[in-house]
Amino acid sequence: MGELVTKRLVVRDWDLGDAEAALAVYGAEDVAQWLTPETHVVRDAQAMRSVLHAWIEAQPNLVAPAGRWAIVRREDGLLVGGLSLRLLPPYEEDFELSWQIRPDQWGRGYATEASHAVMRWAFDQGIEELFAVARPDNTRAIGAARRLGMEWVGETTKYYDQLLQVFRIRPAELKRV
Ligand SMILES: CC(C)(COP(=O)(O)OP(=O)(O)OC[C@H]1O[C@@H](n2cnc3c(N)ncnc32)[C@H](O)[C@@H]1OP(=O)(O)O)[C@@H](O)C(=O)NCCC(=O)NCCS
Question: Domains of the chain by range and CATH?
Answer without folding.
Answer: 4-173 (3.40.630.30)
